[in-house]
Each structure stands twice: as structure tokens, then as C-alpha cells.
Amino acid sequence: MGLVAVAASAQVSTVSGLESLEAFVKNTKSGRAAFTQVVTSPARDGQSAKTKTSSGTFEFLRPNRFKFVYTKPFEQSIVSDGQTLWLHDVDLNQVTARKLSQVLGGTPAAVIAAAADIRALQNDFTLVPQPDKDGLEWIQATPKTKDGQVQSITVGFKESAKGSELARLEILDSFGQRSVMTFSNFEVNPSLNTAGFQFKPPAGADVIRQ
User: Fold this and answer.
1) Are 120 and 105 in contact (CB under 8 A)?
2) Residue 197 in contact with residue 82, Cβ under 8 Å?
3) For residue 83, which phi and psi values (nearest 5 degrees)?
4) Per-residue confidence (pLDDT) for residue 5, from 0 to 100
5) DSSP for the chain?
6) Cα separation of 16 and 94, whole Å?
């Protein structure tokens, strides 16, 4: 009887995880939050695993506009204006520009910020609901293309009066590196406009177009 209860509980969790993602994509057209990111590199050559922590802010406006602004320990911005993905390293005063269509597919941003609906996500990812953990509802998205650097993306949602809120993002890349982003003070559908996602390289920056 205990096993049946566990199985039933897991079944409910898997359904709610997928429903949370669908509700998030459908109802959250814009969002804003603070984040902390912990990147853990796998142990190599007898050395223990290394971790690196950074923090900043995140905004998005569907479809295809998003902005990650890292403030600690180093200043860096990743901005999509809908056509181009800009990476600005403040310390190096270097900007890298790439066509969004060439780099977006299979990335975490495609899952949480770019897709217009759940069907668009299912074209690019295999979506597998996961059991509830840490009070969150989870869904795992595995890119259907196998030539990218991302192996899997797992997203945790928190249910609130405003709907499904983005709470955590776990990324495993093809090198075994794990990145966990924890979001706080998430704002559902704040008033954002496309002008806020325009990027102009600062004066004197070295601009590399790929």
C-alpha cells in the first residue's frame, strides 16, 4: 500500500510539473528577478570539485527578449534584443555579437524566456516532469539536438497567488559542469518594453561579430 501511495504521489507531481511549465509559458509574458548562480566543475586529476558563485538580475519579455546582468564578482551582461545576442564583458571592455537564431536553440533561455508557447518548446526539447523536491514543481528539458553544449535543463517552479513563479534553474552541460541559478523576488508580468532590451556597445569597446 505504501508503494502505491508513493507511485500515486509521484504521478501527481509529474503532472503538476508539466502544468506549471505550460502555465508559466502561457501566462507569464514578462518577468524580473534577482538571481544567485553556483557553478560546480567536476573533480579532475584527483582534485576536488570547484565551485564559483555569482549574482545579478534577470529580465525577459516574450518572445526572444531577455537580459542577464551579472554584478558580482565580475560585471557582465547577456542581452537579447530579439535578433542579436550580445555578451558584454565590462572588465575586458569586449562585446561579442551573435545571431540569436543560431545560438538560442537548446539553451536555458529558450526554455524560460523565449518560447511563445509550450508547442514551440516541444519542438526543440523532450519535456519530462520530475517529482516534487524542495517544495518546488520540476520539469526536465533535454535538447533534441545532440550537438549543443547543454545536456539537460531542469526548472523548478513555485506556486503562488500570481501563478507559477520561476524559482530555480539547474543546467548540466556536456563537460559535466553543473550550474544552479536560484531566483528571488520574482515579479510576474512587470511593465517592460522592447526598448529595455536594446544594447549599444560602449564607446571604445572591442566588438566581435560571429
Assistant:
1) no
2) yes
3) -125, -40
4) 36
5) -HHHHHHHHHHHHHHHHHHHHHHHHHH-SEEEEEEEEEEEEPP-TTPPPEEEEEEEEEEEETTTEEEEEEEESS-EEEEEESSEEEEEETTTTEEEEEEHHHH-TTSHHIIIII-SSHHHHHHHEEEEEEEEETTEEEEEEEES-TTSSEEEEEEEEEEETTEEEEEEEEEEETTS-EEEEEEEEEEES----GGGG---PPTT-EEEE-
6) 43
Instruction: Collect all residues with Cβ–Cβ distance below 8 Å to 122 and sequence separation of at least 6.
Output: none
Alpha carbons 129 and 95: distance in angstroms, whole number = 37
Which residues are 54's β-sheet partners?
37
Residue with cell 564607446: 203
Q: Tens digit of pLDDT for each residue in 130-189?
A: 999 999 999 999 999 877 789 999 999 998 888 889 999 999 998 889 999 999 999 999
Rounded CA separation 135/183 (Å): 14
The number of C-alpha atoms within 13 Å of 1 and in the hemisphere containing its C-beta is 0
Residue 141 has what pLDDT? 95
How far apart, in whole angstroms, are the C-alpha atoms of residue 126 and residue 152?
10
Residue that has been written with the C-alpha cell 535538447 in this structure: 143
| Low-confidence residues in the chain, pLDDT < 50 | 1-15
Q: Which residues neighbour 27 within 8 Å (Cβ) at sequence distance 6 or greater?
A: 163, 164, 189
Distance (Å, rounded) from C-alpha 9 to C-alpha 131? 8
